[in-house]
# Entry
Amino acid sequence: MTSFSKIGWFFLGLLLIISAPRTSSAQESLNVAVLNMEGVDIAPTLLATLTSVLRNEAQQHEKYDVVNQAPINLSEIVVVLGCNPDAISCLRQAAEHINARVLVYGTVAKRAGGFRVTVEIFDAANGRIIHSLGRNLEETQDPVIAFRREIEAFFSTQKALPATRLQIGSTVHGAEIKIEDVVVGTAPFERAGLPAGQYKVEVSAPNHNKWTAVVELPEGGDVRLWAPLTRQLEKAAQPAHQASKSENNPDAQPLVRSQPPPADEVSSAINWGAWSAISVGGLALIGSGVMGWQMIGVEQQIQDESTSGQLTDRRFQELVDRGESYQWAHRVLLGVGVLGVASGVLWLLLESNADSLASSEGLDLDFSPSSISATWRW
# Structure
């Protein structure tokens, strides 16, 4: 083949653009304030150098957006606020004062034979210290080099850990959701990047009984909760033995690890992968039809020019090459179209069967563009 039509290249390029894999966008960055390293009777030059090391490593973290350009001391902030830096409420006020969600700060203290350095990372949204580092630097070591090595390892460990995700649904759409007594949103709710640990979750709605639980988030885990809220009028119909348990221990809260919503309460999501395959296949079939129409046009052109006596050998070869390019594009697009439509329809059928099996037999099937996974629940 010596040539290829512009229309053929257009359709193939369009198919490549549509079928190209879509990469997920980077996670939303967090506003971070890197405060100065502080210490009593420590040389200011050493504190400034250690602060620069800490700040440089934080700036390289993919999730952190360092917002403070000028050096800030935590001790000076708490003096202005008039609070105790050991209290969580004080750290929250400090973060709000400098418009940051995360505070990174540390101290340096002299010890026999060297220094003791500590670094803590406080997340104001969760109201807790999510990471901490404590190391002894020997006097035989260069404190800056030793500190840089420890900080690099400290932040690289955080980068390697996958983010956790918590999803909360409820029978009442728009129910208010609290985590650790802080309102975080309404149902359905999803939050990624929470530190691993236990969290108190409350779900409430007007004229409904409040639902509470303690959920344990493992590092990198994806936990789903379902809050079945009951109307307050139904409380009177509660069995006597259940009512006595609630009265004897009103603060009791179940420890929930993962509780998926009932199958009949959740509407199935649109399978974008299957419909994308069908769409690409349909577009390819349209392109195949266009190429077929072009082939017929070339044949008609050869016949017309031959009848009029204007068809030369060079012109004939040019038209033949063009027809072959149309024919090649027609076959390729036809194959892609049939394959795309067939695979998309098959995907939808398999997913439909998987949903029915999952609801009746306790089998969970997950489909993705690159894999199929099955989990049997008992």
Q: What stands out?
A: Residues 30-160 form a domain with the Rossmann fold fold (CATH 3.40.50.10070). The longest strand covers residues 128-138. The CA atoms of residues 281 and 338 lie 6 Å apart.
